[in-house]
Structures are given as C-alpha cells and as structure tokens.
C-alpha cells in the first residue's frame, strides 16, 4: 500500500518524465530519419507536439506540488513568515478559483462543445484525447495547491521553491570573498 501512495503522490513527476523521454526519443528518431535516410515520418511530429502539451501541463502541476510557481514576494520581506503564509494562501484561493472554473470550461468543451469529427491530422484519433490533459492536470494542480497550503499553514512546514536563489546570501558570500586577503570565498 505504501508503494501505491508513493506513486499517487508523485504521479505528475512520473508522467512528465515518461513523456519527456518518449517525445525526445521520437524527435531524435525523426531527425535521424530526415538526415540519414532522407524521409520524414509525419505522425512523429504530431504525436510529439501532443506529448509536449501533456508534459507542460503535468509539469505545471508538479511545480505546484513543489511550491515552485513564480510569485511576486518582495513586498513580504518586512512581514513575519506566519503572516506571509496566510497572505499567500489567500492569493492561492484566486488561483484555485481560476482552476476550478477552467476545469469546468475544459470538461464542457471536451464533452459538449467539441466537434465530434475533430480528429488528429496524421494519426486519426479524436482530439478529445489530447484535450483531456487540461481538466486532469488542472485538477491535480488544484489538489497540489491545497496540499502545499495544508503543509504551510496546518503542519507549519516551510515549503519553498527548490530553485529559489536568495540574492542576499549570494551578496554576503561575495562580500566575504572580497574581505578575504587571499580572495577566497567562504
């Protein structure tokens, strides 16, 4: 049962990695076919585009899980961390509201408004299989936003962007390097 929850908790990461690996291999095959053998496989380009679309949306959901979406936060520098958590959670309510509305619109489009005969150019399958990524990924993203806010507010965990660069720390390190007579940093 533990393995099942591990997969569920990391589904966006697994899907994104599989999609990236597959469409990069497909595009490499297309390049080799063009350059070495002088012909093109038309369905590879189309499938790669569809896979890239899925990759982008599942990657956005994974970024939401990591707390890695871009935010303007300079205005919070003078506020206590606890207050900042609540302000960001309030802002996330707007994000969640947008996601829920977008999920509704996507489902309505796919199942009610989309042309029944709209299909892929070269592969022939119905494009609803491509568009279904939208409600799935935005639902996952909404769940991840709620999880991050739960971890921040209820658990008290510091969920920060893993790629966040603190410019003040870099400036301090550079200053220490200039203060050292041998020019060594840190």
UniProtKB/TrEMBL annotation:
Cited InterPro entries: DctQ, TRAP_DctQ
Topology with respect to the bilayer: Multi-pass membrane protein
First-listed, main subcellular location of the protein, grouped into a coarse class: membrane
Alphabetical keyword list: Cell inner membrane, Cell membrane, Membrane, Transmembrane, Transmembrane helix, Transport
Coiled coil: none
GO molecular function: transmembrane transporter activity
Tripartite ATP-independent periplasmic transporters DctQ component domain boundaries: 24-152
Location in the cell: Cell inner membrane
GO CC annotations, alphabetized: plasma membrane
Regions that span the bilayer: 49-68, 89-111, 123-143
Gene Ontology biological process terms in this record: C4-dicarboxylate transport
Summary of the function given for this chain in its UniProt record: Part of the tripartite ATP-independent periplasmic (TRAP) transport system.
Similarity comment: Belongs to the TRAP transporter small permease family.
Oligomer status and interactors: The complex comprises the extracytoplasmic solute receptor protein and the two transmembrane proteins.
Protein name listed in UniProt: TRAP transporter small permease protein
Lineage of the organism: Bacteria, Pseudomonadati, Pseudomonadota, Alphaproteobacteria, Rhodobacterales
């Amino acid at each position: 049962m533990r393995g099942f929850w591990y997969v569920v908790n990391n589904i966006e990461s697994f899907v994104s990695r599989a999609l990236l690996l597959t469409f990069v291999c497909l595009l490499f095959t297309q390049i080799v076919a063009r350059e070495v053998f002088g012909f093109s496989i038309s369905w590879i380009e189309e499938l790669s585009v569809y896979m890239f679309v899925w990759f982008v949306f599942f990657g956005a959901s994974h970024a939401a899980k990591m707390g890695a979406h871009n935010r303007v936060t300079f205005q919070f520098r003078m506020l206590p961390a606890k207050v900042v958590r609540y302000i960001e959670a309030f802002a996330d309510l707007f994000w969640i509201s947008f996601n829920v509305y977008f999920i509704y619109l996507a489902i309505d489009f796919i199942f009610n408004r989309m042309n029944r005969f709209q299909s892929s150019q070269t592969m022939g399958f119905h494009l609803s299989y491509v568009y279904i990524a939208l409600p799935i990924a935005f639902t996952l993203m909404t769940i991840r936003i709620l999880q991050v806010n739960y971890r921040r507010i209820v658990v008290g965990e510091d969920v920060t962007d893993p790629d966040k660069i603190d410019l003040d720390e870099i400036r301090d390190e550079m200053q220490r390097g200039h203060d050292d007579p041998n020019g060594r940093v840190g």
